[in-house]
Amino acid sequence: MHDPSGRNPLQIYRALSQLRKETTFQKGDLRYVVISNLVFSFARYAGAGNPIYLVVLNFGKTLSLNDHSVIIKDTVYKKGTIVLTSSNMTIKIGSKVDLTSLQIAAGHGLVIKVEK
Hints:
The chain is mainly beta. It has one domain (9-114): Golgi alpha-mannosidase II (Immunoglobulin-like, Sandwich), CATH 2.60.40.1180. 15% of the residues lie in helices and 42% in strands. The chain has a six-stranded antiparallel β-sheet. Strands 4-9 form a two-stranded antiparallel ribbon. Strands 5-6 form a two-stranded antiparallel sheet.
């Protein structure tokens, strides 16, 4: 099976391992964003000076379209930048996304750096 992103599972694992070293993932709080039969998404945040990350996973067999806006302390965050994708995605790392209407194909996953 051809991976259009050009990455293999080991490269994705290494990228996830690097993200895990960030303060946001080590010590940050967790906020569930979307939980449904198809989609599970959550945000990690660790306060001032640290980025907010949104992790979105589509476990379903169909495309999902959801509002993944992140609300933290009465602030709504609606934009983000893709920092990691599952190996079977064609969306490019660095792409800007609108969290209010985020589409994710079946079996795909994203890590998004939320724009403040």
